[in-house]
Amino acid sequence: MAPPDPNPFAPFGLSPEEEACLRIIDDYQHGRLSLEAAAPQLLDAMQASPRSLNIAAGPRVRRLLAEVHRLAGGQPVAMEPRRDRHADGGKELLEHLEDSVWRALAKHPRANEPLSIGCHFAAATEAAAKRLESWLQTHGDHTVVLTSPFDADTDDWIIRADTPPTRWTRAGLAQWATWVRGAPRGGEASFKGWGV
């Protein structure tokens, strides 16, 4: 077994200063640095970086970035997620779902074998997540895994659903897409993506 890569950020072409920022964030997320220790180090690293970081930030990282902002003399930063984050329910991703998945199935290296389609949703509340879980289990016999916001370090519950391995036909895929589009989102949840 090969030893772990000493520089996991090398493939991304980051500057040493950007790598330092990401290393501090990683150390904080994994408990190797406290908030009090990580914030001043990250502030120094960010000030030394030639470019600003563009990263997706879950609640824990937002807490760190808010503390960095405070140390830099900025105004307090809102920590709450956007209330309207599920307003469209993932409409854009659902728009051409069937055609996109059909193309992916056709190009898949194992296209002649039974394949599972996975999809995931995000839900603002546990109740919304449970409604999605129930819907997906009864519509398409999905295997569903719920992950809490705390465990996922996100603002939402994450709902991952996988179909049983299937030899997909266009009609079968159309039915699956109908189930996914019909999943109860109601402004509390969003479709976030799919994969084969």
Written overview of the protein:
By secondary structure, the chain is an alpha+beta fold. The protein has two domains: 11-71, no CATH class; 91-195, 2-Layer Sandwich (Alpha-Beta Plaits), CATH 3.30.70. The chain is 44% helix and 12% strand. The protein contains eight helices and four strands. It has helices at residues 16-29, 35-48, 59-71, 91-95, 97-107, 126-138, 149-152, 170-182; strands spanning 118-123, 143-147, 157-162, 189-195. A four-stranded antiparallel β-sheet has the order 2-3-1-4. Helix 1 runs antiparallel to helix 2. The two termini are 29 Å apart. 23% of the residues are buried.
CATH superfamily of the largest domain: RraB-like
The spatial strand order of the largest sheet comes to: 2-3-1-4
CATH topology of the largest domain: Alpha-Beta Plaits
How many domains would you count in the coordinates?
2
Helix count equals 8
Task: Give a short account of the largest sheet.
Answer: 4 strands, antiparallel
